[in-house]
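Input chain follows. Return structure tokens only.
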Amino acid sequence: MPAYGVRDLRRKVIRHLEELVAEALDNDAVNLGMAARIADALLSLIAAGPDLDEQARVAVRGAVDYFVLNRDEQPDLDSTRGFQDDARVVNRTCDDVGLPELKVRVS
């Protein structure tokens, strides 16, 4: 993954987390703890990018893209459980790329 690709993915995750923090000021349904754990796992997966093969890097990009969608399988902003589907995607990606230690704790 080229350096600009890593930078762009990192920026995407961080920007989305910042947007969620702002949303949480007026929306008690946003589970910021889960969102932060997912963001941390994604940032770690992105950092591992240079050691991953192309298929794994594509999977990481897909997990990032899924995280930044607010309207996905479980809408992120409508329920305190809205990030559980995002965590499943990230955890499956961690397993698929051989980094299960980065999996998100789902509570």
